[in-house]
Amino acid sequence: MIKKYIPLSIKNKIEKILIKIQIAKTKSTHKKEVLKLRNKEKIKVAFFLIYESMWKYEKLYFLLKEDERYEPVVFVCPFISYGEDIANSEMERAYQNFKKKGYTVHKTRNEDQSFIDIKQEFNPDIIFFTNPWNHTLPQYLISNFMDKLTCYTPYGFNSSNLHKVHFQMNMQNYCWKVFTETNFHKELAEKYSPRKGDNFVVTGYPGIDNLIDNQYNPNEVWKKTNKTLKKIIWAPHHTIPGFKKLLDYSTFLDYAEFMLELASEYKEEIQFCFKPHPNLKGKLSDDKIWGKEKTEAYYSQWANMENGQIAEGGYIDLFLTSDAMIHDSGSFLIEYIYTHKPVQFLMSNEEVKSQFNELGKEVFNVIDLAKSKADIRRFIEEVVIKENDNLKHKRDTFYNDFLNLPNNKLASKNIFDELSRDLLKK
């Protein structure tokens, strides 16, 4: 009862003090763990995957696997936020795809529907997380691994102004190392993090390593292989109205039917790929939006269309083999710049830019913006089909000014080197 009468300002002060105490404890634990692991012959590394499209550690995983001092394993954790069906399908798809790619991978759900105790059965020395949210079971969250060395890389290239989300959650507060994208993001951490960014390390963003690695050969992921067809990705975000969330800039409901019409209209010229955010399906399936039946029918239309398809997993090969993208995704705002290909952002309203940080706002000056169906059609006709990419020079200048690689290395190599510097000292 006493808690009910404590003023909010006092509660906030108490919470900040408790966070500082926990940070101090965690830092002390991490120092001891580092010293302990320096004398260990083989270091066990667990990667916790919730859904496949947010996997950014491919190159890092295989760098660790090639080094006899590390034993990396991927654990596919249940995505519990949108029901049992989506949790099961996400887990099974990720598990099967990772097996095909040569990962050592385990589902966390056993045949008897119980969940494995990773601490007990694998006892990892280091855990890499892929998501800061509580989208999985408590035993797979950072709060259960405060006695271990924990690492995190944002699952998307941070372009939003949600500084609390990016710098003040448990993940950023208690991780041993947060591998961040640029010096700009490190400066934000120094400003907004309770730890003043002392655990943030600038390595670059591993999610785009294969986009910029000249030695990487993408797989063919498009349904049609006719080289005369232009290939356009449509990537709607999940932040549709009606959920009272922090962001609400998705234009999906405005353009869902129109994009199907465009795909039909341009079937002799364009191959479209519907690349929805993984959270979009769960939100659409809510009865107050579309409901499950309408959502499934819509997704099936894209999957079964002659010149259409759907991509719900990884997207690097899709990006590399595309000709352009139309989207309203915060992460893709910067990620697609790495392809040096034309891109259009769908503006839900004039206030959208205010939801982005300074780096994100800079991008709006170098890409095509759509405020109407006519703008989308213009982009397709003039920029994609006729190849009048008048903004290419501006995008390339932005790339050179803000997105150069730290240490002239891929992010995964920078992360690998950072781990080895700390853990392999004698």
TrEMBL record:
GO terms for cellular component: membrane. GO terms for molecular function: CDP-glycerol glycerophosphotransferase activity. Keywords: Transferase. InterPro entries: Glycerophosphate_synth, TagF_C. This is CDP-glycerol--glycerophosphate glycerophosphotransferase. It comes from Brumimicrobium aurantiacum.
